[in-house]
Design a protein that fits this description.
The chain is an all-beta fold. The chain is built from no helices and 10 strands. A hairpin with a 5-residue loop joins strand 4 and strand 5. The two termini are 17 Å apart.
């Protein structure tokens, strides 16, 4: 899992995933302990999906220290979801829902094996 966040390259040292209650949760953590997390339906198929703060179905978040951002306007493209591995790309705007500050995320990619 990797992305460019606010102009800075970010890469997960490890990424994991699991399914529960019909949802697929993905998470990647880098060496500075910042993380990107995703929530999508477990049965998601290849396609393009809109991510926003009003969607309870497709959620992408970023945590850096004590600040948590949620994707307020973005696109998730799932290339494949087969054999317990999901891959694709994402891009959009992350928002701190406390301060309302926004930062861009571009070049997001993921290929995560899940349980």
């Amino acid at each position: 899992m990797s992305a460019t966040i606010n102009g800075t390259a970010w890469s997960a040292g490890a990424a994991t995933g699991y399914t529960t209650s019909g949802l697929l949760f993905l998470s990647g953590v880098n060496t500075n302990q910042s993380s990107i997390s995703m929530q999508v339906p477990a049965n998601i198929v290849a396609g393009t999906y809109t991510v926003s703060t009003t969607s309870a179905t497709y959620i992408i978040g970023y945590t850096n220290g004590t600040i948590t951002y949620t994707m307020s306007d973005g696109t998730l493209i799932v290339s494949s979801n087969a054999n317990n591995t999901i891959s694709g790309t994402f891009t959009g705007t992350l928002m701190d829902l406390v301060s309302m500050a926004t930062i861009p995320v571009t070049n997001g990619t993921f290929a995560v094996k899940y349980q």
